[in-house]
Specification:
heterodimer, A: mainly alpha, Rhopdopsin 7-helix transmembrane proteins, two-stranded antiparallel sheet, 17 helices, about 65% helix, elongated, B: about 240 residues, mainly alpha, 5 helices, disordered C terminus
């Protein structure tokens, strides 16, 4: 069995006589070495080379002049390749299918890396796009190393034994420490990219913050749990004699596997929900339709592989390679889709009367700012009153922002005691939560929200010069010699006779406005 | 509209909880409900029974190989009942999974606990006390996320162990997951609506109160100023709430 720590029983197989000792009888001429003479042997027992008690495909070149295979070996080989799926004899379990799958995965990962470097824009999500580039590059490097190692192992087998074994490649996949380490990093980075994608799909700041915190924590937990059985198994294979809780590891391995499937199902459902609610944008043009189709295909790849896995062990053996490609694909393609979708959305918003939607979360800041301005204004007015009317009452208005804690009681003796443990714990927890929210807001949420506004900017130098020109035009620096002179004029209304206080107020207001315009 | 949505959420979670109860009370608790039938054995969350003799294992997490007769409380090993202590190896579970993996069925009662708590929350949301509470809605939304996660996980565990012989109580879990997910989405919408309504109420008032510092004199002073220059300083206009 290749995957020694598997949570499934190995599939049974038939017994093949050629893998046991074949009695060839007497009268066999053999030459053990080219320097020794040929000898006659009376009783010969021949054992064909088998891999895990299964016949192997011989990679030797056979011509009409070469000796034929033994009849028993030929019969066993025919029985092996025509046996039911459970004994892994048919063509789909052969080395060709495995070679095809991992080289295809390698090519797909490489193509996705090229796509990331060509199409994904650096701005406005600099950190996230760099993370995506790092993840896809690491995946490509990992698969390149794996393909090179697998080819080298197959070449060695061909030269030394004249056989091509699938188990060599599968052993490498499950027991290679480099592959496991890089794969762990790639999946973690891709999961973090998925968190960023989901954050971009939510508009409200609080929701973005929650998605970030929950996503990062769950990604880390799933990767740590995945690392425990994987690295323990690799350690066990590398250093025999160490004892491990096998039952616990067997239990943890499928649990983490199911956890990953659950997360990918969550991710797929969030994307599908967004496809549904923004279906008009998704079906707006041909490119977007194609991109949406590929996105849906990519996000359902992992749940689909789960279904294939529980019905077919062949996929289970190669699931790690497929996993890497699925994660990279579901991060890169969906990122591109979200990018394009948000651009279309902003175009629609720019053309509409109402413009960009503003949520109550954004308005909280406005409300606080207004509160602060009002407080400042009152303070200013209070100080004015203080200077003009030197009355003692006015001092009460001047002290408006004095939200100081009540003065300490003079009769009370206070010792420099440490607060109780409960309070200290509460304070510590509050500090941790505040810190997390601070870093979330600063590095992720605020960056995303603010930079979203300059989404259409592609080249930084062009963008800077355009903005500069716009500002110059607005404040009139582009036409310094054109001077306009305004004259004041009194406005007389017909309804002047009507002595309505409201009209008077309006008139007063208009005259003030006119005077301002004149200035 | 919001009250109707709350009732709808409650109805969805009620159905979801009922669908989660059925697999949990399967073999050996209720003999007519089973998660899978394979090679003359009926599997439930807490144990398994043989079809021919009707003998079940004692209820526990993870499948044991020791059988107990239905009438006796103590474990009684029966060699001829079909569930003696021999190991079935690869033939025990339909998906060839190892017997130790059956301990993962513990997610079923956990999922039921989370779903039942969510159901209680949705019932509470229909009461007058919590109907407009943003905090209660946020709590319910946050609680629904692990509920959906565990529900989906328990379905996947069933698929992993019993496919291709998974019986209807196992598939009900998928329906339950979808129902809880839909209820969660609607709850998110209700939370947004309630939050927006509260904000709009606050905004319409547009009266910023200086609780510890504003005296009556200041208010009168301000109203006087408004009368004098109502349009010069529009930010000082108090709109009626």
């Amino acid at each position: 069995m290749v995957k020694t720590g598997s949570w499934r029983y190995d599939q049974g197989h038939d017994d093949y006589a050629s893998c046991e000792a074949l009695h060839l009888g007497s009268g066999i001429l053999l030459r053990a070495h080219k320097d020794n003479p040929i000898s006659l042997y009376n009783d010969i027992q021949f054992t064909s080379y088998c891999d895990d008690q299964r016949p192997l495909y011989s990679a030797l070149i056979r011509t009409a002049q070469t000796f034929p295979y033994l009849e028993q070996i030929q019969q066993d080989w025919k029985a092996f390749i025509s046996s039911p799926d459970s004994s892994r004899g048919p063509f789909k379990y052969s080395i060709y299918a495995i070679l095809l799958s991992f080289t295809a995965n390698f090519v797909i990962a490489l193509s996705l890396t090229v796509i990331v470097f060509i199409t994904v824009r650096q701005k406005p999500y600099r950190g996230a796009s760099n993370l995506l580039k790092l993840g896809s590059s690491l995946a490509s490097i990992n698969l390149t190393i794996f393909v090179a190692k697998a080819m080298s192992a197959l070449k060695e087998d061909h030269i030394n034994k004249g056989i091509v074994s699938t188990n060599v490649v599968l052993n490498l996949l499950w027991n290679d420490l480099t592959f496991a380490c890089l794969d762990l990093l790639v999946v973690l980075i891709c999961e973090l990219c998925q968190v960023q994608i989901v954050m971009r799909l939510f508009s409200r700041v609080r929701e973005k913050r929650f998605v970030f915190l929950a996503g990062v924590v769950l990604s880390l937990i799933s990767q740590v749990l995945w690392a425990i059985p994987s690295f323990t198994q690799i350690g066990k294979n590398h250093s025999m004699g160490l004892s491990y809780d096998t039952d616990g590891l067997i239990l943890l391995s499928p649990f983490v596997y199911l956890m990953r499937i659950t997360f990918s199902a969550f991710y797929a459902s969030i994307i599908c929900f967004n496809v549904f609610i923004k279906r008009n944008l998704c079906l707006q043009n041909q490119r977007m339709i194609l991109l949406t189709f590929i996105t849906i295909l990519m996000i359902f790849m992992q749940p689909a592989f789960f279904v294939a896995d529980v019905t077919n062990v062949w996929v289970d053996d190669l699931s790690e390679i497929f996993n890497t490609t699925c994660y990279v694909g579901s991060a890169v393609i969906v990122w591109e889709w979200v990018d394009y979708l948000l651009i279309l959305e902003r175009k629609v918003q720019a053309q509409s009367v109402l413009g960009r939607p503003v949520y109550e979360d954004d308005q909280q800041d406005y409300y606080f700012a207004k509160y602060a301005l009002k407080t400042q204004d009152n303070q200013f007015r209070g100080s004015n009153i203080n200077t003009t009317n030197s009355s003692s009452n006015s001092a009460t208005y001047a002290d408006i922002p004095a939200q100081v804690p009540p003065s300490m009681d003079n009769n009370k003796v206070e010792f420099n005691e440490r607060p109780p443990i409960k309070e200290r714990l509460l304070e510590g927890c509050t500090k941790i939560i505040d810190g997390m929210i601070y870093y979330t807001d600063h590095f992720i949420v605020k960056g995303l929200v603010i930079k979203t506004l300059s989404l259409h900017s592609k080249n930084s130098s062009d963008d800077y010069s355009k903005r500069k020109a716009k500002v110059r035009r607005r404040i009139g620096l582009d036409r310094p010699n054109e001077v306009y002179v305004y004259a004041t004029r009194d406005v007389v209304f017909d309804s002047e006779e009507e002595e309505h206080p409201r009209d008077e107020e309006e008139e007063a207001g208009n005259s003030v406005e006119d005077a301002r315009a004149g200035h | 509209m919001l009250s109707k949505l709350r009732l709808f959420i409650c109805a969805l979670t009620t159905i979801a909880v009922v669908f989660q109860v059925l697999p949990v009370i399967s073999m050996p608790l209720v003999t007519s409900i089973h998660l899978s039938r394979y090679n003359g054995r009926l599997f439930g969350v807490f144990g398994w029974c043989t079809v021919s003799t009707g003998v079940c294992t004692p209820p526990r997490i993870g499948y044991s190989m020791q059988c107990a007769t239905a009438g006796t409380s103590s474990a009684d090993v029966m060699a001829d009942s079909g569930c003696d202590s021999k190991d079935f190896a690869g033939d025990f579970l339909p998906s060839r999974a190892k017997r130790a993996i059956s301990k993962l069925l513990v997610v079923h009662p956990m999922s039921l606990f989370f779903a039942a708590t969510l159901w209680l929350m949705t019932v509470a949301l229909n009461t007058q006390k919590f109907a407009r509470s943003r905090r209660a809605l946020v709590c319910a939304v946050l609680w629904s996320l692990p509920t959906v996660f565990l529900s989906l996980l328990s379905f996947l565990v069933d698929v992993l162990l019993f496919i291709p012989f998974l019986a209807w109580p196992g598939w009900l879990l998928l329906v339950s997951t979808v129902l809880i997910a839909v209820a969660s989405c609607i709850m998110c919408g209700v939370r947004r609506s309630v939050s927006l309504q509260k904000y709009e109420r606050l905004r319409n008032k547009d009266v910023i109160e200086f609780f510890p510092m504003q005296s009556d004199k200041l208010q009168s002073e301000e109203s006087q100023t408004q009368q004098e220059l109502p349009l010069e300083r529009p930010d000082r206009v108090h709109r009626p709430g």
